[in-house]
Fold these 2 entries.
Entry 1:
Amino acid sequence: GDSVTQMEGPVTLSEEAFLTINCTYTATGYPSLFWYVQYPGEGLQLLLKATKADDKGSNKGFEATYRKETTSFHLEKGSVQVSDSAVYFCALIYRYAGNQFYFGTGTSLTVIP
Amino acid sequence: GAGVSQTPSNKVTEKGKYVELRCDPISGHTALYWYRQSLGQGPEFLIYFQGTGAADDSGLPNDRFFAVRPEGSVSTLKIQRTERGDSAVYLCASSDNGNTEAFFGQGTRLTVV
């Protein structure tokens, strides 16, 4: 069935370091892909999304490119800040598979000054 | 409302009791989702409504769990004969057509003692 596999954490980086969080998916057809972020004590928020192959989603300095050939949607940021400390979830939705969002297990990121 | 509202934010109940969790989605959103999130895990799909009907309830773990959305807006997740294993954060999300980003509420933390 449809699923999402995320890089396991936790990840600890120094401020201004480069971030990559890997995400690969298994799906029949062409899902839409998302990254959600959960800051401490807050609910899940959409960070970025891509709805078709080769689309690049971007927001707050984060980017992810929908790669159909490698079934991946890796999250990247060139220079992380302390305020980026959160848990990041990769997710997909496939309209013809019940419209449910499939989430990865989450990757905890801590950025230290 | 401005966002998805879930009540109560916290619920402690004794094993064997019945609980109801409420979700008030964003006005006009036809799609509504319930998820369950255990510590250190990603959200686990429970049920998806399109309007008043449950379009996909394949994630409900057993017949103790039931959800309704009688008027196509507010939804209630009902858990009978609660067990300690039901302890988790229950998340509700809504979207405008079930195929785009979902907006999440803050969740209800259920603790069964």
Entry 2:
Amino acid sequence: EPEVTQTPSHQVTQMGQEVILRCVPISNHLYFYWYRQILGQKVEFLVSFYNNEISEKSEIFDDQFSVERPDGSNFTLKIRSTKLEDSAMYFCASSLRQIQMNTEAFFGQGTRLTVV
Amino acid sequence: GENVGLHLPTLSVQEGDNSIINCAYSNSASDYFIWYKQESGKGPQFIIDIRSNMDKRQGQRVTVLLNKTVKHLSLQIAATQPGDSAVYFCAENTGYGGATNKLIFGTGTLLAVQP
């Protein structure tokens, strides 16, 4: 069964450093997303991406964040200067079409980011 | 200050019993709802969805009920099994068919199945 894969599974970084979280969405999917989940809390939307541009972003997704689809298969989330409060599980997701009945978003297993 | 996580509501059931997990959503404009299951260390996994023009939808061992009047969603799991133990989230979308692809997740309920 096709799946969304994320690397690394765990990333530890020092405050102020840049991190890049990587995702390989399902190959024929056209819509891509990043969500995050702070330990014990809700899953929160960060950004959606379609046709090589951001289609929607949340208040969390400030100038420190950026996304890119550099090569047609990878989808990356970059945090330019990490803060302690960026520590969370980051989930990548993809969908074939816009979110609607019979078009589910498939989530990866997540990357746990720990900022120290 | 220290980031203290939310205390998850917990539902504890015996194996073989039926489970009912509830969710209250906040946005009356939401028109598409999804239940996700999240096992420890994994990403959310789709279970079942429902549109706002429906009040009930059934899948394999699962049923979702939607009450738009009181903005309430429930997930019923028949004959609960140990493998059903997980955190269950409801998610809502306000732009069915295209206005937005953003999913807004609820707090989550921990389902603990006792053998």
